[in-house]
């Protein structure tokens, strides 16, 4: 059986050539993309280009229409639960980086239950379990214990942890694993190495191939994204779209989501290399929706309440709410160091009310495990 | 009384409705009531044990609504059987809208897994209404496998594109011994009326109502269209032709000629 690999596709593209092509797009290219019933990667380039900026109103209207048709007037809600801030990597932008002096914390089984009580009481049926990348403390043994504990209380479990082997994902799936988020951070290989000088994360290729391993393991949903601010966001987003396009053709039974984390201040952090405005983030969200009407688009509490409120109808399908980005942040250790500062500090109930005020329905549960 | 009978259950409304995509559950409830629908689909994956806010089931507690749990989210026959058993327990019904669409983009049904699941579920006593492509042969196979009705699609689900599969729907309707419910793609009351005029036994509508500017008014419009289409079908639609036909037939004189000859 043929083993597929995105790396083979990726190596056919040169970063600078792609970047130049994006910046060379004209208003006519944008018009052409907007007028098509189906849009490809070249159209995506036009839609994320500077030439598309004056067309944002039209893009937003189309994005709203496509999103309503495919997802209805609903927004899925989830809560991140940080299990550990231990990490063996050095990353220039992350609060959990190995060289960042902070008190490390990994939740015990009893502490998980305390966190679960609080998150469950908020109404969530979907949690995203997050750890740093520390194979010894938060590896397969830990996940194999943690997932069943959470599965008893939440129908939908996602994880955002270190990239793992295909057989590891296969082993976690029957324990209730539904989705895996793995962000490439940047598709600029040289810059990637600068930002990840130490630890397993320094291997660009190993991370790049993770969605392939997930696809082969039959994981229901794969979350992609880059850390916006590390590199030119338009070019990085093109490579994300290229990755998505390849994955959808290859692992056609898998669902996909895209997230848009913009670099936020954190303890010991590096200032962003490129700044993305709210207007540009909206352009990117609309571009993804026009390129792919079916992909789930997720917006975290990194973004401000005002911005999140206005984005409800414009293409987003999923939001976190009431998030704590530190291990034990809900009940066990509320004052431990956060991975990044959140901007929207409203409670899930308030966020749900905001969603309703837009004429949208908050969805707390949208999955059951039928794997028998 | 023009009733639709499925598995011994009589329905006076031939408009079946879905519960997904609504922006407000109270509006959904009002729309379903306005539709007059007596069969309402519910995604099992959206049904919760009761601890979540925005509980869908709380809005469906009306005696006229028979709930039809669907298996949206399953990817093969094995998962479908498991989901059906969960649904029977959670919603206390053996009725099931069988949906197996492994492709999460277009939600197109898998005919092989659907047939296998229908056989297994019918044997377990479920009233199975499978969602399928408009494939006349598959419909006959499902009929033999024990399906209580068949639900061929008019167009890709949620697309609002109408009866793109019309030629095949006509064959299915002509051949079927079980009720035919056109499901998916119906985006306007005129599409629903057209399906009923073809002779479909019912239609299932969700997106077109849920994302309408006024879902309650749209539900009422669909109810009227379904009724009109059904009435037209029962009344016997004239065959469409390409040439004008005089309403006074040109050969009427022949009968007179015969009579004259007899008289002479």
Automatic annotation (TrEMBL), chain A:
Domain of life: Bacteria
SUPFAM superfamilies assigned to the protein according to its UniProt record, in alphabetical order: Radical SAM enzymes
PROSITE patterns for this protein: RADICAL_SAM
Pfam families, sorted: BATS, Radical_SAM
Domain Radical SAM core residues, every copy: 73-292
Keyword Ligase appears in the UniProt entry: no
Cofactor(s) annotated in UniProt: [4Fe-4S] cluster
Key words, A-Z: 4Fe-4S, Iron, Iron-sulfur, Metal-binding, S-adenosyl-L-methionine
Protein name: 2-iminoacetate synthase ThiH
Organism: Chitinophaga caseinilytica
Taxonomic path: Bacteria, Pseudomonadati, Bacteroidota, Chitinophagia, Chitinophagales
UniProtKB/TrEMBL annotation, chain B:
UniProt function note: Catalyzes the rearrangement of 1-deoxy-D-xylulose 5-phosphate (DXP) to produce the thiazole phosphate moiety of thiamine. Sulfur is provided by the thiocarboxylate moiety of the carrier protein ThiS. In vitro, sulfur can be provided by H(2)S.
Name this protein carries in UniProt: Thiazole synthase
Similarity comment text for this entry: Belongs to the ThiG family.
Binding partners and assembly: Homotetramer. Forms heterodimers with either ThiH or ThiS.
Cellular compartments annotated: Cytoplasm
Pathway(s) it belongs to: Cofactor biosynthesis; thiamine diphosphate biosynthesis
Start and end residues of each Thiazole synthase ThiG domain: 6-249
Transmembrane segments: none
Species for this entry: Chitinophaga caseinilytica
UniProt-listed Enzyme Commission number(s): 2.8.1.10
GO MF assignments: methyltransferase activity; thiazole synthase activity
Enzyme class (EC, first level): transferase
Gene3D superfamilies per UniProt: Aldolase class I
Any one Gene Ontology BP term: methylation
